[in-house]
Amino acid sequence: MPMIFKTIFAAMLIVVIVGCGTDDTPAVSSDEESSSLFESSLIIDRGVSYSVEDLRAVGWKSSQQLETGTLPGATEVWYGFFQQKDIEVRIYESHEAAREFGAPPAKATIDEYSGARDGAHGPWTPNIAQYGAFEIIGNLVLMCELELATCEALANELP
Predict the structure, then answer these.
(1) By residue range, what is the domain housing residue 45?
(2) Which of 37, 101, 102, 115 could form a disulfide with 141 if both were Cys (CB 3.0 to 4.6 A apart)?
(3) CATH number of the domain residue 132 falls in
(4) How many Å apart are CA 9 and CA 130, to the nearest integer?
């Protein structure tokens, strides 16, 4: 009998050690966080200014025009879809204006709403798109649902 108890005790000890082992997920340092934030945006200047019509011509579907009041320097703001993902388009006079006036609110939007999803603030609140990245291409700031890939695909369709 003592051998059985020793075997059971050893087996239980192994289970406890394995169950309480360290987490293999590495901690994120502030440098790595900054790096991942940088990867959530892309800036491209092709020397071209685009309009909402240019976006529609390459398959972006506009849903509604939004107010520009909270976006200094923006001339138009549109909400729409591309490849079944939300893409909000913020239009500025120039590439320089998009960089100067468009990048700070785009980053703030990502920081504020990252992780928010339908019904995240209660069942009576409107849906909030989950923008995880933004791209500045020419005079446009594209707010990308979840990740940069969909905005990159849209930008690649533009002339």
Answers:
(1) 36-146
(2) 102
(3) 3.30.200
(4) 50
